[in-house]
Amino acid sequence: MCAFDVQALALETLRMRARVLFVTALLAFLQYGTASLIVKGLTEPVLEGGEATLECVDTESKFNISTLQFEKFSKHMQRWYRLDMDQYSYLYRRCFFYGVEFTRENGRLLLKLPRVQTWMAGPFRCISDNATDPDNSSLPFTIPVHYMRELSVYRSGVGTLSRYYSLQDLRVSLGDNVELNCCTSASETPEYFWAKEGEDWIVPSSTLRLEQVRDMNSGKYTCTAQHPTVRSLIKTHTISITVLPEDAAWYESTTARITLMTSAAGVALFVVILSITVFLCRRAKQRTSKGPIDDHSQKKPIYKNSVESLPSTTGDKDPLV
């Protein structure tokens, strides 16, 4: 195949893709572009735990307000649920949306969410009971919910166990290298910075590194996380660092204590497993060491040529048993 044919084939492929994209966009416009139902919500971000109100608006006044309903899409069930008290969605609302309020007044349908959580953000839509109408539903609407969890501070290099609890007091040996990590969960990646009490320096990072610590490094350090969009959403965590003297015992440091606790938990678990294993082995041995059951009450069989089978000479006419 010549180069001209290859270029022509590639050009034709691009044209086909362009046609497919155009048809898809046209169908989406025909389906939603003329929809008369829209959902209006807050234009500003909503903090987790705040209040939000959604309104179902019929721009062309073609629907009866009594036939309009709000629906919530469940990502786990992959289906839409009505938020009114119908027989199909009653359990869903009672479990997840028991606090919502519906109001129909002055030709308006309002949905009030008193305490918005992240899993309640949506998407929502407004739909009419008239299923024959091609544009009986609005476009999905999602509430912009912002949040930030509590900060957690842990020391790097001391094992995975230290990440499951946040440090409040850190005792380190003289000359150690200390690396502290500060983290949290938020709707957007927050901005971190470290500061030390009594000093004016700031480290714009989630990681604080102190190399070969001395007595002057002792003090209180504060990690601050600030939401990039909602600047008023700030979380802080303060940790106290104590540099032990050179003659301090090895077990006085926080790292040594974590190691001791981990070792003690491992030894305790090993003892429990060993005890259960010994118990099961002894029980199995007792079962296999038992002989046959000697039941003296059981009748012995009488054979033809045995002494017990000879006829009685005492005139006993009772049959043999």
How does this model look, in words?
- This protein is 23% helix and 27% strand.
- With 321 residues, it is of the alpha+beta class.
- Among the domains are: 34-146, Immunoglobulin-like (Sandwich), CATH 2.60.40.10; 152-256, Immunoglobulin-like (Sandwich).
- The strands form 5 sheets. A 5-stranded mixed β-sheet has the order 11-17-16-13-14, with no helix packed on it. A 4-stranded antiparallel β-sheet has the order 1-3-7-6, with no helix packed on it.
- Strand 16 and strand 17 form a beta hairpin.
- The longest helix has 36 residues, at 254-289.
- The N and C termini lie far apart (106 Å).
- It is found in: Cell projection; Membrane.
- One of its GO terms (cellular component) is cell projection.
- It is a single-pass type I membrane protein.
Short description:
The chain is α+β, with helices and mostly antiparallel strands and about 325 residues long. The chain has three helices and 17 strands. The N terminus is likely disordered.
Task: Give the tags.
transmembrane helix, 17 strands, Immunoglobulin-like, single chain, immunoglobulin domain, 321 residues, four-stranded antiparallel sheet, 27% strand, Surface_Rcpt/Adhesion_Mol, 3 helices
CATH class (first level) name of one domain: Mainly Beta
Computed CA radius of gyration, to the nearest angstrom? 39 Å
**Which architecture of one domain per CATH?**
Sandwich
**CATH topology annotation of one domain:** Immunoglobulin-like
Count of DSSP strands = 17
> Mean of the pLDDT scores?
75
The number of distinct helices, counting runs of at least 4 residues, comes to: 3
Give the CA-CA distance, first to last residue.
Answer: 106 Å
> Which percent range describes the beta-strand content?
25-35%
- Going across the major beta sheet, what is the strand order? 11-17-16-13-14
Helix/strand-derived category reads alpha+beta
**What is the assigned CATH homologous superfamily of one domain?**
Immunoglobulins
Helix content: 10-25%
Give the low-pLDDT segments. 1-6, 23-34
Largest sheet: 5 strands, mixed
Order of helices and strands: HEEEEEHEEEEEEEEEEEEH
Name the overall outline: flat
Subcellular location: Cell projection; Membrane
Pfam family, one: Ig_3
Organism: Electrophorus voltai
Protein name: Ig-like domain-containing protein
